[in-house]
């Protein structure tokens, strides 16, 4: 909860501060060097020196995002799987959290346009480590979800023949969704609290030139004060010992390669990972592009962005609980709920694309950003919740960090394609809105693959069979408890391993 509550720091405020300093340091390419991008008669374009030439500030912000995602990918592929062994994951999470905290506190020194390169470096460092914390926190989810009192009771009833395998799958899936939705809702409550707390600085110090820096420090201090207790009081949940002859920094690559070679055994898991890679790439890049446009429209105001964030946090909290109650009442499966949120995901870049042909809509007016943040809150908080539950459904028991590392690569670290393509388009055209058609096509194509190409029920059985074959130890005891049921014929709804 504390990590996701403070996305307002590494993801929101830090990018706004970096973009603001870069915009102040740049010049209008229409009027030439020495002109101001902030002038009343500015063309709307803004460039900075870059690699022997110039580049649009929007493109530089997208490059920073793309590089951050590239480094996240390196982290997840190198040490993601290693977190499944021993206590390595516990210490890895502590290290990346401390680095993120340090980067955020260092932001207090970012004053003056000339410091935009430092702002870029600190934004990237904070963004990379923040993304890593979310992935490794999320990797704890399947293990915790399988060991709630209700989940254990369901397994007992299944073993004793008191419930059918179909009933067990439905109820266990709902239990995972309950935990995921509650976690997402709580994180948004924390997000709302942080934003309200930030108003205690933003309003009274409105004219102070360092008010933005102080706001980031306060946001980060909240995370430190509330988050440090996890590392002090967390219960040890070590995985199996590292295999003899292996190393923490090489086993990840070996396991990922090994897992990819076994894609035929986990077809739906890998179809989901690949399609979600593209979907997350499209959504994350869309969010970055909208925030770039939003920052320029509100003149990089932390206060206005905080109000937008409050609207998003309130609607996110209400919608997460609302989606969960609807799912629970009607017993709707995870994929169906995820499909609903995917439709909303596709509509966001579509709306931006309309701004190419008209200035009446398409992220040209302040009211549209209010609408965007409310819409995002209603549909995208459940999107993250259901996407995580989908991954938990398709993850082999005992391989949680390994597959959630791949999921993190698909989610947080996927956006290497989008930012690089969009920044090239914007740099070539000088028009931020030209990036939306590509993002719309990317989100739409990925959504269609998930809707029609992922069978969660079959994928879940494949995952259990994979765990039994690869690691028949105590870490996959849940899988072994399903073994007899998985061997039954599919007639009458019973399960069978293909």
UniProtKB/TrEMBL annotation:
What does the record give as the function of this protein?
Vacuolar effluxer which mediate the efflux of amino acids resulting from autophagic degradation. The release of autophagic amino acids allows the maintenance of protein synthesis and viability during nitrogen starvation.
Q: Which UniProt keywords apply?
A: Amino-acid transport, Autophagy, Membrane, Transmembrane, Transmembrane helix, Transport, Vacuole
Protein name (database record): Autophagy-related protein
- What InterPro entries does this protein map onto? Atg22, Atg22-like, ATG22/LtaA_families, MFS_trans_sf
Chain spans, region Disordered: 479-498
One GO cellular component this record assigns the protein to is: vacuolar membrane
Q: Which organism is it from?
A: Exidia glandulosa HHB12029
Pfam families reported for this sequence: ATG22
From its record, what is one biological process in GO terms? autophagy
Family from the record: Belongs to the ATG22 family.
- Coiled-coil regions, chain positions: none
The cross-references to PANTHER family, in alphabetical order and at most eight, read: AUTOPHAGY-RELATED PROTEIN, AUTOPHAGY-RELATED PROTEIN 22
Question: Mind telling me which residue stretches traverse the membrane in this protein?
Answer: 57-79, 91-112, 118-140, 188-207, 213-233, 270-294, 306-326, 338-357, 369-386, 434-454
- State the compartments where it is located: Vacuole membrane
Q: How does it sit in the membrane?
A: Multi-pass membrane protein
